[in-house]
Design goal:
Helices cover 40% and strands 23% of the residues. The chain is an alpha/beta fold. The strands form two sheets. The protein has a seven-stranded mixed beta sheet with strand order 4-3-2-1-10-11-12. Helix 2 runs parallel beside helix 4. The N and C termini lie far apart (58 Å). The model is unreliable at 1-26 and 154-162 (pLDDT under 50).
Amino acid sequence: MDAGYGTGSRQCLVDQTTKNETLNTVMNKTYRSIFISDVHLGTKDCQADRLNNFLKHNSCHTLYLVGDIIDAWKIQQNKLRWKQSHTNVVRRVLGHAKRGTRVVYVAGNHDEFLRPMIPYGVSFGQVEICNQIEHIGADGRHYLVVHGDLFDGITRLAPWLSFLGDRAYDFVLGLNSRFNWIRHRLGFGYWSLSKFLKYKVKKAIDFMFKFERTISDYCKKRGFDGVICGHIHHAEIKQINGVTYMNDGDWVESCTALVEHHNGRWEIITWTKEHDNVDTDTNSNTHK
């Protein structure tokens, strides 16, 4: 009986090890390129744990940080909320670079302090810094990678209004937390009030300033096949006047990344996992 029990235990250990190896194989994925933006490190609403978990289980040949990774506006307002989880994200990115991933940091309006350094070729270790860059896809098509704030009518024509909008968005995020606390107490699930309001405001802004069409028309005039951007916190893949428009979303609420598969297929991934011991699903939106 002892011998039989020992054999059974060893068999269970083997089965469990095989199961764990299979799980790790399924969870860890490698892409040709990954695009993330609007992380807003240094703010209390940054979903740093989710991003850190995403970067832990997903790697690539080229990682593009498409602006607003660090929120310098909060530093100017003396409202910096830097947490250990934010440091973990920085370390994770540098770890990818150290292991051979090409990391490109495209400056945005919240981290525009980087822009004066760009003409001098300044870099952070192995991290390249630029205002915009060309990405050649696996299908041979040429894409302009840019944060997008320079094509936003509000940011370009009235920077003070953009700053005021950022303050209002912070207020709505705080209201969103209280709103969902009440929903939880009443037995209802999470519903993003701030995301709903921001999407409605975005539709109005698009109508007035035509952000998506403006940036797509610019790319078409310059001979690009498509554009990859962030800025408006709304992940999307669509065709605009013959140009492929792709937005990688944000890591404040949506927690989305744009990935390019080795066969040239594009996909938006929504990452809901913060820790490996929490069993949650990820959603994706695929575009060929």
